[in-house]
Amino acid sequence: MNWLSIQANQLTGSIPLSVFNISRIENIAFTMNSLSGNLSNGLCNGLPFLKGLYLSGNKLHGHMPTSLSNCSPLQVLSLSKNEFDGPIHSEIGRLSNLQLLCLGHNHFTGEIPKDISNLIELEQLNLQNNSFSGSLDMEIFNISGLREISLSWNNLSGSSHQTCVLAYPTLKSFI
Prior knowledge:
This protein has one helix at 161-167; strands at residues 3-5, 12-13, 27-29, 34-37, 52-54, 59-62, 76-78, 83-86, 100-102, 107-110, 124-126, 131-135, 148-150, 155-157, 173-174. The chain is built from 1 helix and 15 strands; from the N terminus they run E-E-E-E-E-E-E-E-E-E-E-E-E-E-H-E. The strands form 2 sheets. Strands 1-3-5-7-9-11-13-15 form an 8-stranded parallel beta sheet, with helices on one face. Strands 2-4-6-8-10-12-14 form a 7-stranded parallel beta sheet, with no helix packed on it. The protein starts with a strand and ends with a strand. By secondary structure, the chain is mainly beta.
C-alpha cells in the first residue's frame, strides 16, 4: 500500500500511531475530518518513503513535530486549517524536496524561519492567517522556483510586496 486516503468523512479522535509505521507508504491523507490531538514527535521515524502528508481541515493541535524534518522525501506538507501553535522549527529547512508547504489558518507564532530558504524545490508557500511577527526578510525567499506566496493575516512588518515581485518575475501570486 502506498496511498492511505480517508478524506472528507467524520473521523474523530487522534490519528492511530500505527498509521505512521506502514514503511512503504508514500502518501497519507486525512483531510476534512474532525481528527484532534497532537502529532507524535516520532512521526516520520517509520516512514522512509513518505512524499505527501495531507492533514488539513481537522482539529489537530500542539506544536509541529520536529521529527517531520526526518521525512527527507517529503514533497507536500499540508497542515492548514488546524489548531497548531508555537513557532515553526528551523529543521523545516532540511526538507529539501518539499514543493508545497501549506501551514495557513493555524496559530503559529514567532518569526518565519530563515531556513525556509533551504527549500530549493519549493513552489508554493502558504503561511497565511497565523500569528507570525517580525519584519519580513526577503532573503528568506531566495528560492528560484517559488510561484505562490501567501502571508496575509499575520503580524509581519516591512514592505515586501514590491520587493517580492521584483525578485520573482515568474511569481504568479503574492497574497
